[in-house]
Amino acid sequence: MRSDAKGVAAWFGRYLWSAWAGATGLLCLAAAWQMAHELYGAFILPDPLTTLATLADLATEPGFGAAVKETGLRALNGFMLAAGIGAAAGTVAGYSFAALRLMKPVVTFILGVPPISWIVLALIWFGASGGSAVATVVVAALPISFAGALEGVATRDRGLDAMARAFGAGPLRRFRDVTLPHLLSYLFAAWTTAIGTAWKVAVMAELLGNAGGVGGALARARALFDIPQVMALTVLVVLCALGSDHLVLQPLREAAERWRTAGQSGSVKQPWSVRP
Amino acid sequence: MRSDAKGVAAWFGRYLWSAWAGATGLLCLAAAWQMAHELYGAFILPDPLTTLATLADLATEPGFGAAVKETGLRALNGFMLAAGIGAAAGTVAGYSFAALRLMKPVVTFILGVPPISWIVLALIWFGASGGSAVATVVVAALPISFAGALEGVATRDRGLDAMARAFGAGPLRRFRDVTLPHLLSYLFAAWTTAIGTAWKVAVMAELLGNAGGVGGALARARALFDIPQVMALTVLVVLCALGSDHLVLQPLREAAERWRTAGQSGSVKQPWSVRP
Amino acid sequence: MKLRLENVGHAFLGRTVIEGIDLALAAGEIVALVGPSGCGKTTLMHIAAGLVVPLRGRVHRAYRRHAMVFQEPRLLPWLTARDNIAYGLACAGTPRRHRREIAAVRAREVGLEADDLDKFPPELSGGMRQRAAVARALAVAPDVVFLDEPFSAVDAGLRRMMQDHLAQAAAREGFCALFVTHDLGEAARIADRLVVLSARRRGIIDLRAIPDRPGARDERFVFDLVAAWSCEEAFAEILDGAGRLQ
Amino acid sequence: MKLRLENVGHAFLGRTVIEGIDLALAAGEIVALVGPSGCGKTTLMHIAAGLVVPLRGRVHRAYRRHAMVFQEPRLLPWLTARDNIAYGLACAGTPRRHRREIAAVRAREVGLEADDLDKFPPELSGGMRQRAAVARALAVAPDVVFLDEPFSAVDAGLRRMMQDHLAQAAAREGFCALFVTHDLGEAARIADRLVVLSARRRGIIDLRAIPDRPGARDERFVFDLVAAWSCEEAFAEILDGAGRLQ
Amino acid sequence: ASPAMTLWGPPAAPSVLLAQAVAAGSIQGQSLDFRVWRSPDEMRAGIAGGTMQAVVVPTYVAANFYNRGAGLRLLNVLTEGLLYVVGTPDAEGVVGLAGRRVAVPFANDMPDLVLRRLLAKAALTPGRDIHLDYVGSPPEAVQLLLAGRVDAALLSEPAASAAILRGGMAGKELVRAVDCRRAWQVATGAASMPQAGLAVMPALADRLGGEGLEALQGALEAALARVKADPAAAGGAAATALELPAPVVGRAIASSNLVALRASAAREALTGFFAALAEDDPRIIGGGQPDAGFYAL
Ligand SMILES: Nc1ncnc2c1ncn2[C@@H]1O[C@H](COP(=O)(O)OP(=O)(O)OP(=O)(O)O)[C@@H](O)[C@H]1O
Ligand SMILES: Nc1ncnc2c1ncn2[C@@H]1O[C@H](COP(=O)(O)OP(=O)(O)OP(=O)(O)O)[C@@H](O)[C@H]1O
Ligand SMILES: [Mg+2]
Ligand SMILES: [Mg+2]
C-alpha cells in the first residue's frame, strides 16, 4: 500500500472537505425541522436552537458523560459482537452450502421475531441491566452483517481464487488475500447501517428495560413531559450515530478501500478538483 | 439469458433440495426451543408442538386470514417503498458526491432517531392506523437499502462503464446494463434483511398503535398473558418473513444472478452433485 | 479528416506519458500504432475515443459513431456472447430481433460457432472472448473504430482472416481504424500508415505511409518490409529488449 | 518425469473438449502447446495444474512447487505491482522483507521500472500487467511453471528478452515449463518439444521434439522451421483460418 | 444479615406506600427494599424468573397469573381506583366524552379495559361515538393532549396530576373530566374498584409464613396511615424511585384512593370487579374466577 506524506495530506484534505460538505446535509435537515416546529408548535417539536441549547445545558450536568459512555459501551459492544459474529457466520455460510442451510433460518428467525416475544427471555437471561441492551443490539445488527458477508463471499472473484490456489495458498490465506478485500465493501455497507441501528436500539432497550444510560435519561425526560430534553437527547443519539460512522467506520473504510480509487484519475472527474 | 426446459428442471430440483436442506436448520432451531422450554417452563416458553397446535387453532378462527393479509400488505408496502426509495437515493448518492453529502446525514438521521422521538409525529401524520405502521417499516428498512445501493454503485466496474461509454451508451443505459447487475448483489443482501425487518416492524407498530392485523392479535394475547398464543403468532411472523424471503426474494435473486454460476462447473464442487 | 488530435498531452499522477501528439485519421484509412509496452498507446487511444480527458491539447471528431476493442475483452459477465456482441447495437437502439441476427453474422465472421453464442464470458476461451469483443465493435458499423491489440490472443489462421476482414471492411464500408499492435508484421500487412510512439521521447517519433494497398500485400513484401524496419533507428526502442533491462 | 497426464479427458456442460491426452514433462524441459483458439489448451493446462478436476484420467505430479501465468494477468487489484509480484512468495511463506527484494529483482527481469512497482493494477499498462504476472510466477522458483500465452501483450524486443530469459532459467534452474502460445515462431525458438492440439479431433494430433537447444537457435533456423511446419497437415487447423469461417 | 427483601411496585401511586413501608423498617428482622418495574414485560420476566417475590400488580393480572399456574397470590388491595380521563374543562362524565378524541396508552391493558367497559355501559361505541387514539405510553398521550391534538387522555396517578400541572405551566387548563372509580360505581353498582394490590410468590410466602405476611400487611397499613397524614413527605420519599418531582407525587396521593385492604376482606369487591372486566372475554382473568387459594391473607 502506498502511504507517503503527500497521500496522508491529500486524505486529510478530502476528509475535511467531506465533513464540510456533510454539514450541508445537516443544515437542510435543520431547516426542515424548523419548519415542522413552526407548523406543530413546541409541544410536538421544539425548535432546533432550543434543542441545542438544552443539549448544551445537559452536557454540563454531572453524570451526563457517564450516561453517554454507558450507552456508548453497550452500543459498541453490541455492534462489535454483531459485526463479528454476523460476519463470521455469513462468511462460513457463503463458503459452505451446508452451513448456509443451517444458519439462514436461524438468522431469519433472529431477524423476524418481534422483540416483545423474546424480551422476557432476554430479561431473564441478562437481567434488566446492560446485558439485555447489548443482546437487543446484537439481535438487531447481526442479521444485517450476516447478509452482507454471505453475499460478499458468494460474489468473490473465482478467477483470483484459482490464481491463489495455483500458488499454493491455503483456504485461510485465500480468504484473507482474495475474498476479504472484496468482502469488505459488502461489510462496510452493512456496518454503516448496523452502527446507527446499534445506538438507536441500545437507547430504546435502556428506555424499556430501565437500565440507565441515555435511554434512562430519555425515559425520565419523557415522564416529566420535558419535550426539549427529549429532543436534545435524540439529537445526541443521532450525533453519536453519525460520529461513530464518520469517525470510526468511514476512516477504516477509506483506508481499506483506497485501492479502489487507483487508476481513476484521468477518467473520473472529482467534484472538488478543478481541471488544471 | 439461457432458459430451456432442462435449465428450469435443474433450477426446480435445486429449489426443492434447498427447501429440504433449509428444514434442517429449522429443526435444529426447534430442538433448541424445546430445550429452553424444558428449562424455563411453559409460562415463559411453551413447547414447539403446543405452539404449532395453537397456531393451527388460530388459523381456523374467522378474521385470521384478514389480519395476516392486513399486516402483510403493510409490511410489503413498507418494504417496497423502502426498497425503492432507498435504492434510488443510494444509487444517486453513489454516482454523485454532492448528493451523497446531502443525503447521507438524512439517512443516518432516519436510522439513528429512536422511535419514541418521532412516534408522536407519526401519529399526527398518519394516525394510529395502518399508515404509521407502513411509515415505521419504511423508516426501519430504508437505510439498509440505501447503504447497499450506495456501496454497490461505488464499487461498480469502471472498465465496463468505459466500454459502454465507448459504444455511446447514455447514463441511464449504462446504469441499467453495467451498474445494475453488479448492484443487485448488494441490493439483495440488503433486501434480505429488509424484508424480515419489515414483517417484524409492521407487527410491532400494529401492536403499539393497536392497529389491528397480526400485531393487534399479538397485543391482545400478550395483555392476556396467553403465552402459547403469543408464541404461535411469533412463529407466524417468522414464517411469513421466511416465506417472503424464500418465495419472493430468493427466486428473483436466483433469476437475476444466474450468470454468476456460469463457468464454475469444472472447478467448484457442488455439494449435491456426485462426481460421475 | 474524421478524427484529429491536436497537440495532445497527458500525465497520470503528475508523470507525463505523452506530449505534443498530432495525428489525423482520414476516411477509409487504417493507422497502426506501435511502440514499446507502457509508452502510452492505450492512453492515446482512450483520449482519441473520448474516454480520457487529455490534460493538454484538443480532439476534433467529425463522425457519427465509433466503436472500440479494448486491450481486455471487457465483456459484460451477465450477458451471453450473443448479447455481448449485440451490445453496441443495443446502445445504438437497434431492435432486439434485428440485432441478434446481426450478432450471429458478425460472430461467424470472427469464427465463433452457433453454440458458443449462448455461453457466458467465463465459459468462453480467451481467444473467443477477444473475438467477441472484435465482433461487438464491428457490428455497430462504426465510422471510426479503435482497436487495442485486437488479435493478440487468436491463432495464426484466424488472425490472418480477421486482419483481411478488417482491411476489406474498411475499404468497403469506408470506416477508418486506429489500431494498436505489437506485431510489426500485422502493421505491415493491413495498415495504410504507421505511427511509432516512443516511451523515452514521450511522443511520436515516426509516422510513415506504407506502400501498396492493405490486404493486397503478399507475405514476401511484408517480411522484407519488417526486416527493413528492423534496421531503422525509429524501431530500435521496440525491437531492442536488452536496452530496457538493467 | 515431473508431471504426467494419463488419458485425461474433460467436458464442460456435457460437451467434450479434450479426450485421451497423454503427456509428460521431464525436468528442465520446455514444452510448447499450440492449437487453434478454443481447442482446450487453457483447459488442459488448468487440469495439469490441478485447478480443474478432469472428468476422466489422472494427473501425476512429482515436484514440490509449481507456478502459473494465466491467460489474463489475474493480479489482485488491492495490491501494488510489487506486492502482486511477491504474492507467490507470500503464499510460500517467504518473509516480507526478503520477498520484496526478490520482487524487485524479478520486476527488473521483465522490464518493469522501480516506480511502476508502486502502481496498482489499473494504473499499469496491459503489457505491464502481463509482465507482472510472469514475474510473479518466476519469483517463486518453481519446479514446474505453466504459462498461458505469457508474452502476447508485450512488444517484440521485450518478448525476445523474456523468451531467452525463460529458456536460460529453465536450463539453469532445471525447472520445466508447459507453455501455450499462438506464435509458432515463439514455440520454435524456445521449446524443446511441441504439442499440437486439435479442436476437431479433441486431442493431441502431433507431438515432436524440436532439434537443437532452445535459446541457441538463430533467426534463420526458426524462420525455416516455421515455414516447413506451414506445409504440414498437423498445423493446417492452426494456420487455416478460412476453413473455420462459414 | 440476610439480603434485603425487595418490594416491587408499578410506576404508579401504590408505590408510594411501598416506599413508606421500606423507609419504616424491617419484617422479621429482614430489611426491606423497594424498586419500580417499568413495563409489563419486566414484571412478567421478574415473576416468571423468580426475581420478584413481592410485587404490586393490577389485581386482574394477579388473578390471571394465578389461574395460569404461576403461583402468584394476592395479599391485599392497595388502591381503589387511580384512573382519570384528563381533558379540557368542557367535558363532564363519560357521556361528555361523546364525539371527542381520547388518547389511550397501553392498548388492552387495565386502563383500556376499564374505559371500554365504561363506554359500553354508556352506550358509546369506539370509532363511531368517540375516537380512541391508542398510543404506546402515557407521556405520548400527554404530549398529544398538551399540543391540542386530542381532547382528553386516559391517565393513572401520578401521571394525571403531572399532566394537569404541566398544562398549568403551559397555560392550558386541564381537569379530571372523568373519575373512573366514580363512573365505575355508577355503571356497575359496585362499591369500589380494587385496581391493584401486592401479590406474593409461593417461595416468599412459605419463607415468611402466616406471621410474616401479617407483619408485611401491618407495615403497609402503618405506611398508609403515615401517607395519609403527610402526603407531601410521602411524595418526597417516593419521588426518586418514580422519577417524578416530589410535589407532583404528593399531590397525586389525594386522588389515588390508596388503601391497604386484606385480600380476603376485599374478596367480594374483587370478584365483582373481575366479573365485570371479564364479561366479554374470560381469558382476561385467566379463564375464570380464582379460587380461595388466591387470597393469601
Ligand atoms: N489510470 C492510470 N493511472 C495511472 N497511470 C496510468 C494509468 N493508465 C496508464 N498509466 C501509465 O501510463 C503509462 C502508459 O500506459 P498505457 O496503458 O497507455 O501503455 P501502452 O502503450 O498501452 O502499453 P501496453 O503496450 O503495455 O499496453 C504507463 O506507464 C502506465 O503505468
Ligand atoms: N468454465 C467453462 N465452462 C464451460 N465451457 C468452458 C469453460 N471453460 C472453457 N470452456 C469451453 O471449452 C473450450 C476450450 O476452452 P479453452 O479455454 O481451454 O480454449 P483455449 O484452447 O485456451 O483457447 P484460446 O486459445 O482461445 O485461449 C471452449 O469451447 C470453451 O467455450
Ligand atoms: Mg495498452
Ligand atoms: Mg486459452
UniProtKB/TrEMBL annotation, chains A, B:
It is found in: Cell membrane. Keywords: Cell membrane, Membrane, Plasmid, Transmembrane, Transmembrane helix, Transport. Its main location: membrane. This is ABC transporter permease. The keyword Zinc does not apply. GO terms for biological process: transmembrane transport. One of its GO terms (cellular component) is plasma membrane. It is a multi-pass membrane protein. InterPro entries: MetI-like, MetI-like_sf. Belongs to the binding-protein-dependent transport system permease family. The keyword tRNA processing does not apply. It comes from the Bacteria. Gene3D superfamilies: MetI-like (1.10.3720.10). PROSITE patterns: ABC_TM1. It holds the Pfam family BPD_transp_1. The chain crosses the membrane at residues 12-33, 79-100, 107-127, 133-154, 183-203, 223-243. Residues 68-248 form the ABC transmembrane type-1 domain.
From TrEMBL, chains C, D:
SMART domains: AAA. Keywords: ATP-binding, Nucleotide-binding, Plasmid, Transport. Residues 3-224 form the ABC transporter domain. Transmembrane segments: none annotated. The keyword ATP-binding applies. Pfam families: ABC_tran. This is Nitrate/sulfonate/bicarbonate ABC transporter ATP-binding protein.
